[in-house]
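Lecture notes, unit on protein representations.

Consider one protein chain, 425 amino acids long.
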Amino acid sequence: MARIVGGIGASHSPTIGFAKDTGKQNDPAWKPIFDGFDAIRGWVHEKKVDVLFMIYNDHVTSFFFDHYSAFVLGIDDSYVAADEGGGPRDVAPAMGHLGLSQHIGMSLMADEFDMSFFQGKPVDHGFLSPLSMLGDANGPWPGQVVPLQVGVLQLPIPNAKRMWKLGQALRRAVESYPQDLNVAIMATGGLSHQVHGERAGFLNEAWDAEFLELLEKSPDRLMNMRLAEYVEKGGMEGAEVIMWLIMRGALSERVRLVHKQTYAPSVTNIATLVFDDLGDPPDAANVQAHRLHIGYELEGAGSVPGTYPFTHARSQTNLRLNSFLHDLVQPAHRQRFVNDFEALAAERGLTQEEKDLVRNRQWIAMVRRGVSFFVLEKMAAVLGVSNPEVYAAFRGETIEQFLATRKVPMRYSVAGRGVQHGVRS
């Protein structure tokens, strides 16, 4: 089964990525940054880490305030660099571990954390600044990742205790995954800094040293601090260090400090930290009980005839096709879908199989493949096909046969008033 071998803490300032990309390794002003990450990279290699669970916050790049979630788990197979305004960094995509990410998502939901999930979104410096430092002259770090984006930039946000509890739930999730994996939990962000307002440039190295000491030896004191205390001591943006409590909560009570370093050259106190986890292996009976707990809600749903639960696995496999059909909510895409389908489908990278499914209106085949009904009804509306006609196709019936099974033989669609394309009521 998977095991947590330790925890990593690392700042994620864009300073780090800039230093990497501009070759500052031997510049005395920048070298301490590289020294800290050299220690992390050496430990990751020594422990033969297969997967890094990466805790970070996006900086209003891929996640905007129109839909802002507290905990967003990545469930994709790769994560590319985001364009943060001046073009994306030239770094290799991070490779996601699909099985572990989907298992963790199921486990956290079973433990009553209301998770959101993302795929197809690029990652910014909150994720890539520290991760890119784990590569060497031979290329990027070769392992896989599971990203957790934590929304800490639009208030209110989860408190420190909630972060800790999520970490405890994360440990149960990882230890119940059946594949033999070495997993490290990597928390990013901080340390003290503030980048807005008249307090911009604020640093508090004394608090940073205290925070790291408490994280190792008395995390309960950090867990019970209010957000306002973190803001006062470490700056508004520096309060993101509460994310480190997810990492510490995922570790056992017994840890060994392997490495600790801080360096405050400019606006952010840049930190690197490594803990070995000294906890006992999980109890086999507890692991089995948790696996049953994870699967309890959906047990048997997939065996109900004619039913296809829309799982993370189905969603990830069919994201391209679902996205293509979802975009029919956009008038320009809709117009090209009707008038220039072949060129549009080619631009969006649809395979021949996917194009055939759409072109030939293979409604039930698309559902069986993993296309959501709720993008199919958008496609139907564009084509002037009523919802009941789609239901009939699912059942292998004519529309007349299907309507004969209803109390009222009505037809309808989700198309707007005046553009129903001849759908009969």
